Amino acid sequence: MLSKTKIGIILAMFLLLAAVPPLADYFDQPFYLALFSRILIFAIAAISLDLILGYGGMVSFGHAAYIGLGAYAVAILNYYDIDNGWLQLVVAIVGSGIVAALIGAISLRTGGLYFIMITLAFTQMLFFLGISLEEYGGDDGINTSRSVFGDWIDMDDNSVLYYVILFFVAVCTLISWRLVNSRFGMVIRGSHSNERRMLAIGFPVFRYRLAAFVVSGAMCGVAGFLMANLTEFVTPSFMHWTRSGEIMIMVLMGGMGTVFGSILGAAGFLLLEDILANLTLHWWIIFGPVLVLLILFAKKGLWGLIPGREGLSDD
Amino acid sequence: MSLLLLLEQTLNGIQFGVFLFLISAGLTLVFGIMNMVNLAHGSLYMMGAYYAVTFVQLTGSFLLALVLTIPCALLTGIVLEVIALRTLYQRDHMDQVLATFGLILFFNELVRILWGAEAQPMPLPPIFDGNVEILPGVPYPVFRLVIIIVGILVAIFLYFLISKTRIGMLIRAGASNRSMVGALGVNIRLLYTLVFGLGAALAAIAGVMAGPILSVEPGMGEEMLILAFVVIVVGGIGSIRGAVVASVIVGVVETVGRSTLPYLLSQVLPSDDAQTAGPALASMLIYILMAGVLFFKPEGLFPARTG
After folding, report:
1. pTM for the whole structure
2. Which residues pair with A234 in a beta bridge?
3. Residue B297: pLDDT band with limits 50, 70, 90
4. Residues A114, B298: C-beta atoms closer than 8 Å
């Protein structure tokens, strides 16, 4: 189980996150409300990727695809005047899940670098599909409006939207945490550390991995659903391959194989981006080398800085 | 859709394949020998193009620019290897992907600072300007033919280098058993650095040749990089022969697919559907090809025997 320090930090983290809207309101900084909404959405994407990357060793270089799918589920339904949030959410989750099943079924046959590249290739495929769908805006993207969840949740209020996103972060964290500590999660981790042995014991490793891949894709679809709601605009650039790389970096910054670390990773990445962008126009020239240094010297990520037992040995 | 147009498109495809080969050759060598994924390889291609732009402005001669760019690119590659990439050889692929991803961001911004964000003009060299009739009634730009010839020359050069020279022997030995080569007293670090520099120089040649026909701008490397990855994955990572075959396949499928697929679809589908599906399918074609190849041959067409 988690150490007391870590439980404390997790509680403090969620309390702080819950305090963002009133604080942003008090200091009259709506920009930070939007920034933290983005952070939380990417946190969901990072949590979903960490599930297969950190625990299962499946290096998916194409997780932006599911953000795009979730976002387009909102935009395309909205295009046909279907603004029911529940329906959009279901379509986003089921759609991403189905696509993840197809991609996973082919990609998981390969391994190592081939797996990285084939997941990238599938995402490129969807990226170009998005560009060529002129009906839904093509290259320019498509405007959409926020989902409608009945009278009692007013998504048009940015603070309400923020709490909806935070709610989904909590749900995804909980699901991931339960999953990685379940028998299913043990099989996934076991297959990561020694596939041959798991096969010898009699576990159908491929099927377990595929299931994890689908759960991860569907969860990332939720991030896309929320992203479309936040930006009210969807473009193929949501699926650009650099986006997939960024999500991977967030997982790494937070610490691989740490469900809660992904939230820290997303926050760390986007805040660093924000700070550097304020410093200089050419902030990429600092950001690039910082990434390299992080990867070379800070593999345990932000979560690893917290005292107590770390990473995969958290249980 | 005439047969002649198809021929022209096929030649364009081969010419595009040559670009891809020049880029993927270095990528696949570096992977085969150092077991290293280098996303920043596309940046070396970009640096090559930018060096050439500068040298053309300074000297006014395309050929001189090409000659000057090659050592500069070689040096860039070597410096990059010594400073940043050397430490990554022992890391897993994900670390390599992400660290070199960071390098891409760095190089793109560097180029933006040094040369500006807008595309840099690079005139077609006058000697290669104009068309030549490859068949009666079929004019074809000379420069594109030159690109194809350069590609063939590089492929022959690589073949001799790798299968006939001592350094090539070491490269092959390094690919099949790294630690053994090191144990036999070969300076494996130096070999790695040289191979990396060679890859950088090849990518830079592609960059120079791309200058006059594609636009020289920040981020130009990424598009090529992803296609080069498709090439080395289809061809079998680490295999030069695979890279040759796969780059021609990918180049031709990409180019010919883009120009003929919308037409072919319009023959079988109502024209509205064909208008939508044609370009979509055409841009997805090579990725479908790659997924198909990996589905049947998870190790690519020519699996390299590495160990």
Report:
1. 0.87
2. A142
3. confident
4. yes
